[in-house]
Structure formats: structure tokens, C-alpha cells
Design goal:
The complex is a heterodimer of chains A (297) and B (280). With 297 residues, chain A is mainly α. Chain A has 13 helices and two strands, in the order αββαααααααααααα. In chain A, strands 1-2 form a two-stranded antiparallel ribbon. In chain A, helix 8 packs across helix 10 and helix 10 packs antiparallel against helix 13. Chain A is globular. The mean pLDDT of chain A is 90. The radius of gyration of chain B is 24 Å and the shape is globular. Chain B starts with a helix and ends with a helix. The chains are: A mainly alpha (297), B mainly alpha (280). Chain A: It is a multi-pass membrane protein. Chain A: Its main location: membrane. Chain A: It is found in: Cell membrane. Chain A: Keywords: Cell membrane, Membrane, Transmembrane, Transmembrane helix, Transport.
Chain lengths: 297, 280
């Protein structure tokens, strides 16, 4: 035992920054924020234990319920749209056409730039009353609305912004498609399979691990959208809470109302929700994700 | 048959090119609009400017009194630069330990590290703020940089562990026989061979730090310490939407560094995304 770990100190030496960070900035704060979620805490005064009150308040808090609805609506639209767009374009680009590098760059640029404040500001303009969309509509004689300032449409402009950034998922799909051996398609053709059959029997099963991975990452990222909703709604989540994303409300509660216990409780519910959702996806994955080593395992 | 194939190829090119142009149109329109007089921004959806002006770049640059966007750019470069160096060093150290060294609890810590990859940052948000507040670090760059010095971006550790595992162990072993210790092996063998993964780490650290609006807004309040994203936010705070030209001008400038990084390191970015599923 001792001999096996001779010189173990050198491992810890290399791990020192990570260990301090893990205990000091991740694990410690996680446990502390769990404690804070049962308290009333305003940063300047010591936390006061209030039991489950934060969680009880949450389910009567109109704004909290709105923020959950907004975030779930967003995820349910943005994640499928983005993945479908990414897959469709990846399939088109995978047909061995020339100039694939240039196309890939064109499609990737929105993903590269999309997370910035600059693009969020651009979106606010494009979907504004005098914005690009309405200018184009006016060209066809249609009078547009102020999309970002209308409670029925504001969230959908953000869904479009997110879908627009399908390029990074597309790059992952393209890499996945390249891994599929072409002999499989040739063999299927010999057997008289049509395009439809080739897609559902070869492409989709072999791409399902990549799809599964993309799905989980997109859900986790979409649940935490912040910059675009903050910029487009000028930090309010408006109009009428229509873009009040979960993380935006959490930020407002914690850092402009200074209800930091409440904000911690919100963060823990988000973590628990994501953990359960990821767990369910992993459990169902054996029915639809195909792994080459060991077939459907 | 051949003719049929040719027309269908043409057709695919047309679709792919059409959607592609539609995709980047907003960005190009913003670039062109930043040179248009204000009234044309609100009336001209085309990308051929009828009149050109540099006025917006001048107005945007001096958005607030006593400060310029030049300062915001300098601040952003300092933060992103230190973050890149810190991440490359500390993440590669941790990755080397996980991939090559033996010590008690290695598997436990490795599992902990993997779990933090998917952890939503909000769970640590309030305690971190309160720690930094009690250390009197609010309104300094320390809350943005110290987490990078402590290797908290687990994703990069994971990426580097995968890469280092692919480096043949024979190299380490022959170096050990020649009398090299783990520190020498890390410096002379692992780091040089892991350069592609280190570049991927550096590029994405740069892009994410450059774009990181949330933490910068949370921790910085003095305008002199503002970064580029915070400078851009000043437009919605102070002037409403009265001057979209200036907003576009500074937005365009803010995207230049990331775009340049992309064109210089395109290969690493595309490979990084394709092999690890990193969010670009």
C-alpha cells in the first residue's frame, strides 16, 4: 500500500490549485448555499433560519411561477428547433458537396458570436418597432409590431436567437456523420433500401449517441440563459414577465432585492430539477441510444 | 443520370448557400449599419449603404465622460489574458495529476471533478459573492480571476485528461529511466505534446471570458474598471435606443477580437467542438 503511493505528495502538489478551488469555491459554497436556502439572508446581516419558508413562498410567488413557465417554454421550443436545424443542415452538408469548409464557417459564425452582449443588442434592434424585420415586412406592405416589446412575441424572438446558433451542434453532427462507415449504406443499397429506410435504419441509430449528448448539453445550457434576456428586456424580464428567465429572476432576487436566501433556494431547485431530468434521460437512453459496443445496451 | 446528379448538386448548393446568407445577414447588416447615418438605419434593410459616415464610431467610443471604449478594451484584454494563462497552467496541472500520477483518493477526486462539469454556476453564486465580499474583493478583478487560478473550469481539465491519456506512456517511462521526475516529465514531455489541447483550452477560455457578461456585471461597478460587455450595457442604461448607430459601431468593435481568434485558429475550434462537444 505504502509502496504503491510512494511519492503521492507529487500528485497532490499538481492537484493543489484544483483542490483549493474545489473545496473553497465549489463544494464549500454548494453546502453553504444549501444552508442559506433555509434562511433569510441579505448579505449585510447574518442569515436567519426560517425553515422551509423560502420554498413555500416560491410556490405562491407569481413571478417565480412565471419564470418557470418562461424557461420551460423556451427549452421546449429552442432545444428541438436547434437540434432539428443542426441535423438537417449537417445532412445536407454531408452529401460531399464542394466548399464545405466555407459553408461550415458561415453556419458556425452565429454560434461564435451569439452569446455576446453585442448580438443581444442587435436582436433588440432587429425585432424592434423600426427594426430590420419590420423594414422588410414594410417592403411587402405588412405593418409589423414591436416584437420585443410585445408580451406575446418577446420570448419567441429569444427562441429564434437561440435557434440561430445551431452551428456548434451542426459541427458535432457533421463529425458524427463522418464516423458512419459508407459500406453500411452500400450494403443497404444492394438490399434495395430506399433513402427513408437508410436514414431511419442506419443514420439515426448510429448518430443517436451524438444526438443524446447534444440534447443533454442543450437542455442544461438553455435552462441557464441570461445575457440575451437581460439585454433584450433591459434587465426587467418584461414586458409583463414574458422574458423573465429563471436565472434572470434568481439574479434580481439575490442582487437587486438582496433576498439571497431565496436566490439560493431557487438555485438548489434548479440543480435538483436538472439532476432529475438528466437522470431520466440517461435511464431512457437505453431504449433509443445505440452503442456499437454491445448493441442496444 | 449524370445530368440529374449535377442538377441535384446545384440545388443543394443553392439551398445551403441561401440559408447561409440568411444566417449571417443580420451580422453583415449590423456591420454596414454602423457606417450609415441614423435615419438610414431605420429605413434601409439593404446592405449597400447610400451614405457613409464614421460619426457613430466617434460617438460610441466616447460613450461616457472621462472614459473611452479604449479603456474597456484594455480591461477586457487584461482579464481575458490572465484567465487564459491561468487556465492553461492550472487545468493542465490538474489534468496531468489525474491522467498520470498515482495518489490516494484519485478516483474519488476525479469523479468529483467530472460532476462539476455539468454543475449550474448559480448553486455557488451567493456564497461565492459573500466570500468575495468579506475579503473586500468586490469591484476588483479578483473574483473573475481567482477561480481561473484555482482550476474551477472542470471542462478543460476533462478535455486535457482525455488528451494526455492519448500520449504514449513509453515516453514517460523512458524519461523516468533517464532519471527524470514527474515535474520534469510534465514540463518536458506532457506540455509540449499536449499543445493542441492547450490551444483549444486557451481559445475557449478567451472567447468565454470575453463574452462573460454575468460575472463582470455582478462584480464590477466602477466605470473605470468596466469591460467591453459592460461598456455596451451602458447604451441601454443611459441613452435608451436614441443612437443605434453608436451601439452598432461599438458592438462591431467588440466582436472583432473573437472573430480574429476564430479565423486564426479555426482548425482548433472546429476540432475542439467536434471531438468534445464543447459549446462554441
Amino acid at each position: 500500500m505504502l509502496k504503491r503511493y510512494r511519492g503521492a505528495w507529487i500528485g497532490y502538489l499538481f492537484l493543489t490549485p484544483w483542490l483549493i478551488g474545489f473545496f473553497g469555491l465549489i463544494l464549500g459554497p454548494m453546502i453553504y448555499s444549501l444552508y442559506l436556502s433555509f434562511t433569510d439572508y441579505s448579505l449585510l446581516e447574518a442569515p436567519k433560519w426560517i425553515g422551509l419558508k423560502n420554498f413555500e413562498t416560491m410556490f405562491q410567488d407569481r413571478n417565480y411561477i412565471d419564470s418557470v413557465k418562461v424557461t420551460l417554454t423556451f427549452v421546449l421550443w429552442a432545444v428541438p428547433l436547434e437540434l432539428i436545424a443542426a441535423l438537417a443542415v449537417a445532412l445536407l452538408l454531408n452529401k460531399g458537396i464542394r466548399g464545405i469548409g466555407i459553408y461550415r464557417t458561415m453556419y458556425y459564425i452565429p454560434s461564435l458570436l451569439g452569446g455576446s452582449v453585442a448580438i443581444a443588442l442587435l436582436w433588440k434592434n432587429i425585432f424592434g418597432v423600426d427594426g430590420l424585420i419590420n423594414q422588410v415586412l414594410a417592403y411587402f406592405g405588412i405593418a409589423g409590431k414591436g416584437w420585443v416589446s410585445h408580451p406575446d412575441y418577446a420570448l419567441y424572438t429569444l427562441i429564434i436567437l437561440s435557434t440561430w446558433q445551431f452551428g456548434s451542434a451542426m459541427v458535432i453532427f457533421l463529425a458524427g456523420l463522418k464516423q458512419i462507415p459508407s459500406e453500411l449504406y452500400e450494403a443497404a443499397e444492394v438490399d434495395g433500401a430506399n433513402r427513408f429506410q437508410k436514414f431511419w435504419r442506419i443514420t439515426m441509430p448510429l448518430l443517436s449517441p451524438v444526438l443524446f449528448f447534444n440534447l443533454i448539453m442543450k437542455i442544461i445550457n438553455s435552462m441557464q440563459v441570461f445575457t440575451s434576456s437581460y439585454i433584450v428586456s433591459e434587465g426587467t424580464g418584461g414586458p409583463i414577465n414574458s422574458t423573465l428567465f429563471y436565472t434572470l429572476y434568481l439574479y434580481l432576487k439575490g442582487f437587486s432585492h438582496f433576498e439571497m436566501g431565496y436566490a439560493s433556494a431557487m438555485a438548489w431547485l434548479l440543480l435538483i430539477f436538472l439532476a432529475i431530468l438528466t437522470g431520466i434521460l440517461f435511464l431512457t437512453s437505453k431504449y433509443w441510444v445505440y452503442y456499437e459496443d454491445g448493441g442496444r445496451s | 443520370m449524370l445530368a440529374h446528379r449535377k442538377t441535384s448538386r446545384m440545388f443543394i448548393h443553392l439551398i445551403v448557400l441561401g440559408i447561409g446568407i440568411l444566417m449571417i445577414y443580420p451580422v453583415i447588416w449590423m456591420l454596414v449599419s454602423s457606417f450609415k447615418p441614423d435615419e438610414l438605419i431605420f429605413s434601409d434593410p439593404g446592405i449597400w449603404p447610400k451614405r457613409v459616415t464614421l460619426e457613430h464610431y466617434k460617438n460610441g467610443w466616447y460613450v461616457v465622460r472621462d472614459t473611452t471604449f479604449g479603456l474597456f478594451f484594455r480591461n477586457s484584454f487584461i482579464i481575458a489574458g490572465i484567465a487564459v494563462i491561468a487556465n492553461v497552467i492550472t487545468c493542465s496541472m490538474a489534468a496531468y495529476a489525474f491522467a498520470r500520477l498515482r495518489f490516494p483518493l484519485r478516483r474519488v477526486f476525479f469523479a468529483c471533478m467530472l460532476m462539476t462539469v455539468m454543475l449550474p454556476t448559480h448553486v455557488t453564486l451567493v456564497p461565492r459573492y459573500s466570500i468575495f465580499h468579506s475579503l473586500d474583493w468586490i469591484d476588483t478583478y479578483l473574483p473573475l480571476l481567482v477561480p481561473k487560478l484555482l482550476a474551477t473550469d472542470a471542462f478543460f481539465i476533462f478535455l486535457l485528461v482525455q488528451f494526455i491519456r492519448g500520449i504514449p506512456r513509453d515516453l514517460d517511462e523512458s524519461a523516468t529511466i533517464d532519471g527524470s521526475g514527474p515535474i520534469r516529465i510534465y514540463l518536458k514531455i506532457i506540455l509540449p505534446l499536449a499543445v493542441p489541447a492547450l490551444i483549444t483550452t486557451a481559445i475557449f477560455t478567451f472567447i468565454w471570458t470575453w463574452d462573460d457578461f454575468f460575472s463582470q456585471m455582478l462584480y464590477l461597478s466602477n466605470v473605470k474598471k468596466f469591460t467591453v460587455p459592460l461598456g455596451l450595457r451602458l447604451f441601454i442604461d443611459s441613452q435608451g435606443q436614441s443612437s443605434w448607430g453608436a451601439v452598432f459601431a461599438m458592438s462591431v468593435l467588440s466582436l472583432v477580437p473573437i472573430t480574429l481568434v476564430f479565423f486564426f485558429f479555426q482548425r482548433y475550434i472546429v476540432e475542439g467542438i467536434a471531438t468534445t462537444g464543447i459549446k462554441g
